[in-house]
Amino acid sequence: MKTSQGIDVCYHVQMAVDAKHKLIGAHAVTHAVTDQDQLAPMAKQATEVFDADRLEVVTAMGYDNGDDVKKCLEDGIVPYLSKPQTSATSTLGLFGQEEFSDNPEKDCYRCPAGQD
C-alpha cells in the first residue's frame, strides 16, 4: 500500500462486534487498499456467526459502496453509514452542498448565510 514513507506491506483488519455484548463475532484481515469492498462480505459473515435473521450494521464512511449496500439490503442487512464528502468546495473554503437547505415554498435553496 502507498504510505507517507512510500510503498509498504500493510493489512486492514475488518471486524463485526455485537452491540449488546461487545464481543467480536467475525473478523478478517485483508490487503485491500480501501474498505470499500469489505462491507457486504463482513456483514454476511456476521449474519452467519450471530445467527441473525435481520442485522443492522453501523460503519464508517470509508465503506460507502453502492454495490455492497445493495448486497446487504438483498440479504436483509440494514447498513448505516455516513455519506462521504465528495465535493472539493470545502477544501477551497467554499460552502458544500450539504450546507444548503431546501425552501419548497419559494422553489429555491437557502444558503448557509440565510439568503434564498
Computed Rg? 19 Å
Helical segment tally?
2
Q: How confident is the prediction overall: mean pLDDT?
A: 86
Percent in helix:
10-25%
Distance between the termini: 46 Å
Structural class: alpha+beta
Low-confidence stretches: none
Whole-number total of structural domains: 2
Proportion in β-strands: 25-35%
Major sheet attributes:
2 strands, antiparallel
H/E topology pattern: EEEEHEHEEE
Morphology call: flat
> How many β strands by DSSP?
8
Order of strands across the main sheet? 1-2
Q: How would you explain this protein's 3D organization?
A:
The protein has two domains: 2-84, no CATH class; 85-116, no CATH class. It has two helices and eight strands; from the N terminus they run E-E-E-E-H-E-H-E-E-E. It has helices at 39-50, 66-74, and strands at residues 2-3, 6-7, 12-17, 24-30, 55-59, 77-81, 101-103, 108-110. The strands form four sheets. It has a two-stranded antiparallel sheet. A two-stranded antiparallel sheet has the order 3-4. Strands 5-6 form a two-stranded parallel ribbon. Helix 1 packs parallel to helix 2. It starts with a strand and ends in a 6-residue tail after the last strand. The model has no long low-confidence stretch (mean pLDDT 86).
